[in-house]
Amino acid sequence: MRLLISVGILLFIVVGIFLCWRYRKVKLSGDTPSSSAVLVAILFTSGLDSGFILMPLVEFPSYQSDPSYGFVNPLAIELGFWGLTAWFLYFVSTLYFLTLEPKLQLFKRPSIRLVNSLVVLMTCAFTLSLFLQLIPQYTDYFLTEISELVLFALLFFMIIFALLVSTKVRFMTRLSQVSVLLFCALILVIGITNDFSSQDLVTSLAATRGYLANFHQFILPFNDYHEFYLAWWLTWTILLGQFVAKFVNQMSPFKLLLTMVLIPLIPTAIWFSVLYHHFIIQAVMSPVIAITMVLLALLFVVNSLDFMVAHYSQSLSIDRKRLGMKKFVLFNSILLLMLTAMFKEQWLFIQWTALLVILIALLGLLEFLTTTRLKQLHLHINNFVKVGVDKR
Fold first, then answer.
1. Which residue from 58, 213, 208 is spatially nearest to 137, judged by alpha carbons?
2. Are residues 40 and 263 in contact, defined by beta-carbon separation less than 8 angstroms?
3. For residue 37, what pLDDT band results from cuts at 50, 70 and 90?
4. N or C terminus of the chain: which is more exposed, having fewer CB within 10 Å?
5. Rounded to whole angstroms, how far apart are CA atoms 40 and 352?
């Protein structure tokens, strides 16, 4: 599996470099061009889910104790797992949908649409299962106990809400912006609570240099957990690129690269630095902060779910228009709850979904190479015929 994931990552890197070079002078725009600020807000909240909020404090202890992470500090490890590689994969996918997809029309083919829709559906269920697994780590701070039934009830209401807003693009955009503001507020609250000074920020950010110094270590998987992360990013790649491409407004590939890869890294580094300081000083989390983190994680999940549901339901013909509102909500709720339970019980794995993404990418590359060769052959034939006519 690790070899296949590595092949997929390398394929995206090569394609990204090629597309940047080929379309370096082209200004790219999507169907719903928006400002750079809106684009970053949508990318940041849709491309991340509850794991971004809840996982770091859970993972720092293992990064500190596990010898396989001994080459750098836990903060750098966390940033490496959520850093440039993930955002670059999203960028490559977005660039593809702005440049090659209008010509190849690969995702309008029924077979590709079906496979891609299954990828989206499985990613959606995995996102929910991850939320279920992480929530008990934080509810212990403000609840004595939370049962499985309560968790699934919460999940059910989240799914219903996402289903109801899945076709309201303007609302989804506003929700992304609100999520970003709440995220910034949470950083301030945690920082103030833990007496996080400017010097502490400088010290924590200095620790992130370990990631930049070891950047090459995070491109390909170096252990099973890193493989899981890269597989996770691959499953998001096509879906997010297809969605974010709509909001690009007159950007060159280089500017889009800066916007999608480097800018999100800044708040990511600040957020992880604040959490790492909380971990280092062994601060006790207050119930208010725990509740706020859970609510923000919930918002991030809804931000992700709404456009995923809109995508797969339409492609699989189980959308609101075909089924009607009641059947649409009921059918999709049951479907998502069943798949979520399968991921939670480890009957399904996100690595399997990543393999489908790699397969689609390989088919796209083959289609591009075939189309290019046919065009070159057609050009050669036309030149040959023209030379023959001129000689006569």
1. 58
2. yes
3. confident
4. C
5. 29
